[in-house]
């Protein structure tokens, strides 16, 4: 009977020790969140460690994550970090039951990792960014030391409790309950305060009234949108426009305090602009389709919007910048975001006459925060990773030889014009249309070149021309359709496009790394 009681007691103590580790980890994160409200939200441990993990993840792994998790890749990463911390906390709790000080020291190690991650981020403001992780870890270490003390210290009471181990059950329960309550309150307070810090940014966006453009976009031709069920809308709504970036926390920037600096090689004089400075300048409005380099053949990371902003070439000329073709010493623009992201864009492309802009509006409203408010870059014809810097705050003129931006360091190409691509939107893969006339339809794009022709092939038959919707501009995608006389059975539908330079979309399949995917998009259907 005594053996059974001792074993049961040991099992209970082990479970409570693991629970102590979880409580210590929870307390560390909660109090770190509270401290981050006094520093900045991006300094919280989960965000800092997650950002550092993204920085050090190979390009192929990132591409895999985007391909498999889409826009949920950051949520998956955060959940993975929390799950890893939970397992670590459980193990530390069990370790502390045997080696109390070592367990507490292991919690402090968590703080050191978080501190190192926070201060190593590109947007770090210095050692102060490490305070949330460090102070949170101290709280967690002290809590673990106290809780384990309740499980290991003899407690003089009478009756069966003394025979079953002699440890302080009541003291443990009181300490654990108090710790859980205090941690929950601290975490909630931290969340609330961090949320309040973004209120000024939200208010600044709500106050924006975009002026009318000096150079408005031409009306979209009536025939640009086909009346085919299942086809992508010509204009992508803001709330469904694709998002691919590395920000775990969407930057919320106050437009009233935002500044943009233009400086660097070949700049005759540095320039600095406020948000209102940009709004007071002549604005252009243009229809432009954007594409992410991580878009697989037939993938969803392409979208179209009406953008309004300041022509970037005008600002560069005002700073004295000349393109390389006119003797300018800089051939690369490095655009930096408030979160430390750096993208590199060819100077020549920005200044060759295309409608490259610093966008302030999207589809008739100020940029949404998720799409770069207050200001982002938009350069037609280039994949986003070399042109579409969101939450922009700094433009530096330099050379490709002198500096490798974020993605180039990860083996992506320095220059990345968008490849000619096409996609079948309807019928969907593995669809079961009925025999008869089936409308096959989709979109094709070759930004800054335009789409000249789209062709459809059924199984291994001949290529047939699709009917093209009206072309808006060479910087927009183009819808197409093909009335297919569908016969019963399984069929493979394949599409290819030809751009206005005469280049036919290649059949050769390539991965997205280093400069975008290529190949023909196909869908398999079964006709009933």
Q: How many E-type strands?
A: 18
Helix content: 25-40%
Question: Would you tell me the overall average pLDDT?
Answer: 90
CA-to-CA gap between the ends?
A: 72 Å
What is the spatial order of strands in the main beta sheet?
2-1-10-5-6
Any idea what the radius of gyration is? 29 Å
Runs with pLDDT <50, length 5+? 1-6, 157-164
Strand content: 15-25%
Number of DSSP helical runs: 12
Q: What would you call the quaternary organization?
A: single chain
- The shape, in one word, is globular
Structure overview:
The structure is a single chain. The chain has 528 residues and is α+β, with helices and mostly antiparallel strands. Helix content is 36%, strand content 21%. It has twelve helices and 18 strands. The radius of gyration is 29 Å and the shape is globular. The termini are far apart.
Topology:
Layout: H1 2-39, H2 45-56, H3 59-69, H4 73-98, H5 100-120, H6 131-152, H7 160-163, H8 169-197, H9 199-206, E1 259-264, E2 271-274, H10 275-280, E3 284-291, E4 302-311, H11 312-318, E5 332-337, E6 342-346, H12 347-350, E7 357-362, E8 365-366, E9 376-378, E10 392-398, E11 421-426, E12 436-445, E13 451-458, E14 464-465, E15 467-468, E16 478-486, E17 489-499, E18 521-527
Parallel strand pairs: 1-10
Antiparallel strand pairs: 1-2, 3-4, 4-7, 5-6, 5-10, 7-8, 7-9, 11-12, 12-16, 13-14, 13-17, 15-16, 17-18
